[in-house]
Design a protein that fits this description.
Layout (H helix, E strand, L loop, with lengths): L15 H6 L17 H35 L3 H29 L1 H19 L5 H27 L7 H9 L1 H19 L5 H7 L2 H11 L6 H6 L3 H11 L35 H34 L9 H36 L1 H20 L6 H21 L1 H9 L8 H29 L2 H21 L13
Helix pairs in contact: 2-3, 2-5, 2-6, 2-7, 2-8, 2-9, 2-12, 2-13, 3-4, 3-5, 3-17, 4-5, 4-9, 5-17, 6-13, 6-16, 7-8, 7-13, 12-13, 12-15, 12-16, 12-17, 12-18, 13-15, 14-15, 14-16, 14-18, 15-16
Keywords: Membrane, Transmembrane, Transmembrane helix, Transport
GO molecular function, one term: transmembrane transporter activity
Protein name: MFS transporter
């Protein structure tokens, strides 16, 4: 790096993203293929990735904890739905409520607030003594995680080079899959070490200290210079951009942002009505509807994989005779869920590699079709018996998990934070996440009821149809954002 020279140019009053995208040059004038990430940029990325990890950890662990909670509090199928839907409904509220506040109060401030809320309700959760308090705490956790959907995306994408935006945002998002695997793994470990009904409290307690560490870390990052600039706080934007891009040797050597009036105005003053004006309408449909459709399947399959496996593979007794039956069934189902969840990680790895090469839209369409194929394979398992049935169910679910993280689960998140103007990016991404979580909440609440009422196979047929519809909507309203400066989209 000592041989690299800074690009010699006078300040030309460019935007923040132009400075972030600026590449150093060798003495002969040859530019590097990309701008190396600074330590601050990596810190921002790491702390955002941690937030996605906690989401997967808490939400997917609920699938393992649910049988224990139901037994301890003596609740039925409809109340099971409330427990599963509470955190998802909180995500909906947090995404549309707190997420949009990042356009008014700043990305960093909401980035910190969400983790404080998360730590508070996580601590209260392990102390719950009845059904109502449990639902309230899970809802509070969801509010924090919902705020993280738009905020984490923006704080990464507004701080990194355009050419690497896709892979870095998705790499952080991939920690949701790692969290899901860790959640089922911790659930299995805790049940093995403490085969008792209150083991679910220890499951959630394992996240408290890591969450506190992440909260402290978020106080040390920079505010989004893009957001500060759009708000007219130019001097502060320049200061934060210098902190963000500090490296040795120093480049860019100087940062002087445009003082011209920004057409977008103050980020917080437009509200949700702006999402349905002019070209923003197309962006809103693309960001929201496919997300809703993919969440129907992703959360339904993700949360209830242990339950479906137990029922389909014979691990779940029709009449539970004792607490030990519940523990044994839950351990066996958690093992199967952990195996299937590993395909989420494989899928996100492929998404990270391909997002900036193949493009968001193509991956989302192919992913939706692949999800439909996986669910169809799983639905056909009833036509088989014994080992063949087991193979069909596992193959279908594993294909679904791979394709959802290659395509819609990853790409809907990525697109929602890219297709809106900076001034309403938090509001737009928050609305899209909230709209998606309507599907997740409906699925979490209705799934345990529908599993009993209509059975597994018809339910999977419905999800096949919604996946195919997602591919159609994505293609019709497509906006390709791959490698494009966010300010030019």
């Amino acid at each position: 790096m000592d041989q690299i020279l800074n690009e010699a140019r006078e300040p030309d009053h460019r935007t923040v993203q132009h400075y972030i995208d600026e590449r150093p040059a060798w003495p002969d004038g040859t530019s590097l293929p990309s701008a190396p990430m600074t330590s601050m940029q990596w810190r921002i990325w790491s702390l955002a990735a941690a937030g996605k990890f906690f989401e997967g950890f808490v939400v997917f662990m609920t699938g393992v904890a649910l049988p224990l909670i139901a037994r301890e509090f003596g609740i039925g199928a409809s109340q099971d739905g409330f427990i599963s839907a509470a955190s998802l409904f909180g995500i909906l509220v947090g995404a549309v409520g707190l997420g949009g506040m990042s356009d008014r109060f700043g990305r960093k401030r909401m980035f910190i607030v969400e983790m404080i809320i998360f730590c508070a309700f996580l601590t209260l959760l392990i102390l719950c003594s009845n059904f109502i308090s449990l639902v309230v705490c899970l809802f509070g956790l969801g509010v924090a995680l919902g705020c993280d959907y738009p905020t984490a995306h923006m704080i990464i994408s507004e701080s990194i080079p355009s050419l690497s935006r896709g892979k870095l945002v998705l790499a952080a998002f991939g920690f949701q899959a790692l969290g899901a695997l860790a959640g089922t793994g911790v659930g299995f470990a805790v049940l093995s070490l403490d085969p008792d009904l209150d083991a679910w409290r220890w499951m959630y307690a394992t996240a408290i200290l890591p969450a506190l560490a992440v909260t402290i870390g978020r106080f040390t990052i920079t505010e989004s210079a893009n957001w500060l600039h759009i708000c007219g706080r130019v001097e502060r934007a320049e200061e934060e951009a210098r902190r963000l891009l500090f490296r040795k040797p120093l480049y860019p050597p100087n940062i002087s942002l445009s003082r011209e009036a920004r057409p977008d105005g103050h980020g917080g003053g437009q509200g949700f009505a702006a999402l349905f004006r002019g070209r923003n309408t197309r962006a809103t449909v693309l960001a929201s509807v496919p997300w809703f459709l993919q969440d129907l399947g992703t959360y339904g399959i993700g949360i209830f994989t242990p339950t479906i496996l137990a029922a389909a593979l014979g691990h779940k007794a029709d009449h539970v005779r004792s607490v030990s039956d519940i523990i044994l069934n839950d351990i066996l189902a958690a093992k199967g869920a952990a195996l299937i969840t590993t395909l989420l990680i494989v899928g996100i790895i492929f998404a990270v590699v391909l997002a900036d090469r193949v493009g968001r839209i193509s991956l989302q369409v192919v992913g939706f079709v692949g999800c439909a194929a996986g669910l169809l394979v799983a639905s056909l398992a009833n036509g088989f018996t014994g080992e063949s049935q087991t193979v069909m169910i596992f193959a279908g679910f594993m294909l679904f998990n791979f394709m959802t993280n290659l395509g819609p689960n990853a790409q809907t998140y990525l697109l929602a934070g890219e297709v809106f103007p900076t001034a309403i990016r938090g509001t737009g991404a928050g609305f899209a996440a909230a709209f998606g979580k309507i599907g997740a909440v409906a699925t979490a609440f209705l799934f345990p009821i529908l599993l009993v009422a209509i059975g597994t196979t018809p339910l999977l047929y419905i999800l096949v149809a919604t996946s195919l519809l997602g591919a159609v909507v994505t293609w019709k309203f497509r906006i390709e954002t791959t490698g494009v400066n966010l300010e030019d989209i």
